[in-house]
Amino acid sequence: MSRNIIAILRGLRPETALSITDALIAAGITRIEVPLNSPDPFDSIAAMVAHAQGRALIGAGTVLDVAAVDRLAQIGAKMVVSPDTNPAVIAATKAQGMLSYPGVFTATECLTAVRHGADGLKLFPAFKLGVDGYKALAAVLPKSVETYAVGGVGPADFAAWQAAGITGFGLGSHLFKPDYDATKVGHLAKDCVTAYDAAFG
């Protein structure tokens, strides 16, 4: 089962990247991003891409410019996640054959992202938008667009967001902090997967 959970590994170091990747995949989370404000993120991503060998979708978060998109394409990343809606970043991502998940909060940002070819929308920060805010936005969004609640949303919230129509989640501190080892990440990931499966069936 492919779950719409994106693991956000902010602060990941290259020396622990592969063990953390294996722990997430074993628990059932196969979409993984390394934010570019982590230590040596391109080194981690390149190693993870080679190591995962198609078992997971590896990409980057906090992608703010086209130069970063081009570098990610060169090392084999498949996913670009941003905190904002930048049409140039979306266009460059799609031109390189990667998946684009820009950050959005307003109806204008959502529809701008969709018009420029985004594969999904990162509702950020989701805890400020709230379920009611998301419902209002969802009423004007194309039914086919994937939506991810990111920021301050964890397993205890999955059911409420699913009932409102969200299609996925981006999870940071609920899954990973720089001092967590692979065993701890694996346990947390299993808890998240259990909650996701219960909410989405």
Question: What is the topological layout?
Answer:
Layout: E1 5-8, H1 14-27, E2 31-35, H2 41-52, E3 57-61, H3 66-74, E4 79-81, H4 87-95, E5 99-101, E6 103-104, H5 107-115, E7 120-123, H6 126-138, E8 146-150, H7 158-164, E9 168-171, H8 182-200
Parallel strand pairs: 1-2, 1-9, 2-3, 3-4, 4-5, 6-7, 7-8, 8-9
Search tags:
201 residues, alpha/beta, TIM Barrel, nine-stranded parallel sheet
Description:
This protein starts with a strand and ends with a helix. Helix 1 packs across helix 2 (41-52) and helix 1 (14-27) runs parallel beside helix 8 (182-200). The chain has one domain (5-200): Aldolase class I (TIM Barrel), CATH 3.20.20.70. Strand 7 (120-123), helix 6 (126-138) and strand 8 form a beta-alpha-beta unit. It has helices at 14-27, 41-52, 66-74, 87-95, 107-115, 126-138, 158-164, 182-200, and strands at residues 5-8, 31-35, 57-61, 79-81, 99-101, 103-104, 120-123, 146-150, 168-171. The protein has a 9-stranded parallel sheet with strand order 5-4-3-2-1-9-8-7-6. With 201 residues, the protein is of the alpha/beta class.
